[in-house]
From TrEMBL:
One of its GO terms (biological process) is chromosome segregation. InterPro entries: Chromosome_partition/occlusion (IPR050336), HTH_ParB/Spo0J (IPR041468), ParB/RepB/Spo0J (IPR004437), ParB/Sulfiredoxin_sf (IPR036086), ParB_dimer_C (IPR057240), ParB_N (IPR003115). Keywords: Chromosome partition, DNA-binding. This is ParB/RepB/Spo0J family partition protein. The keyword Acetylation does not apply. It holds the Pfam family ParB_C. Residues 1-11 have a biased composition (Basic residues). The keyword DNA-binding applies. Residues 42-132 form the ParB-like N-terminal domain. GO terms for molecular function: DNA binding. Residues 1-44 are annotated as: Disordered. Belongs to the ParB family.
């Protein structure tokens, strides 16, 4: 047992390179050593690497990039980037674009990289998942990444949840953000609006009402709870020409339940109850929308 533990410690002590098998195999030719093959980790010239066309991040904070560059000058690259080999001396970035760009700023000529074999779809999936899990993406970038994984990688929501380590409800909450008007999406992207505010606003079907409440949020710096109250009022049924009746007993609880169900299913849900019995209505606008709801219900 002691010998096994010692071997294990020695293997871990050799670092990431040992785990990724970056040491050249015995009998490897000089050409193979000079041009890294798939499955290895080597130092690669920066000018032989092209950026990832599937990169989900659309904006890099230049100040943070400069700070990373200064750190790289002092500490070097701690975590290698990941690339795929295109030809003899040409590689394409899979993940680690911040490290790649910061290394160029730092004036490096070589960068440690793990070489993988991947087709375009695998490239997209790896790049999206790596960025979702490691980078500080804003809510809209995460939502767009989830949407691309569903459509371009042909994943179902449950499969997507497994890949990114999130449950279906969380994935669905992000996807629903893409239904919001561009102005609200831009505020989310620029962090002028929180995920909580957006989740409340997305329950409103009328775009003008959404934008009206959104403007109040920005102008008066409203809390998420206040926005949820405004949304409940906006969604409450009103009878024209008649004075609103006092809410029946349990009305507030029913309103809260409707809001929660609407958030869970990504559509407006109607709950009716007389205190003893009632009904729940979940509308859908297409066969695809129905299948999405059935998938959430696990039917």
């Amino acid at each position: 047992m002691a010998k096994k533990d010692l071997k294990r410690r020695n293997a871990l002590g050799r670092g990431l390179g040992a785990l990724l098998e970056d040491s050249p195999a015995k009998g490897q030719s000089e050409e193979q050593k000079e041009y890294p093959s798939a499955g290895s980790m080597n130092s690669i010239p920066l000018d032989e690497i092209e950026v990832n066309p599937f990169q989900p991040r659309t904006h890099f904070d230049q100040e943070a990039l400069q700070e990373l560059s200064e750190s790289i000058k002092i500490q070097g690259i701690i975590q290698p980037i990941t690339v795929r080999k295109l030809s003899k001396n040409k590689y394409q970035l899979i993940s680690g674009e911040r490290r790649f760009q910061a290394s160029k700023l730092a004036g490096l000529e070589m960068i440690p990289a793990y070489v993988r074999t991947a087709d375009d779809q695998q490239m997209l999936e790896m790049a999206l998942i790596e960025n979702i899990q490691r980078e500080n993406l804003n809510s809209i970038e995460i939502a767009l990444s989830y949407q691309r994984l569903l459509t371009e990688c042909d994943l179902k929501q449950e499969e997507l949840g497994d890949r990114v380590g999130k449950n279906r409800t969380t994935v669905n909450n992000y996807l629903r953000l893409l239904k919001l008007p561009p102005d609200i999406q831009a505020a989310l992207r620029d962090k002028k609006l929180s995920m909580g505010h957006a989740r409340a606003l997305v329950n409103i079907e009328n775009i003008d009402t959404q934008l009206d409440i959104f403007k109040k949020v920005i102008e008066h710096d409203l809390s998420v709870r206040k926005v949820e109250e405004l949304v409940r009022l906006a969604m409450a049924p009103r009878k024209e020409g008649k004075e609103e009746k006092a809410a029946p007993e349990g009305g507030k609880e029913i309103a809260n339940l409707q809001t929660k169900l609407a958030s869970h299913f990504g559509t407006r849900v109607q709950v009716k109850s007389n205190g003893k019995k009632g009904e729940i209505k979940i509308p859908f606008i297409s066969v695809e929308d129905l299948n999405r709801i059935l998938e959430i219900l696990n039917v």
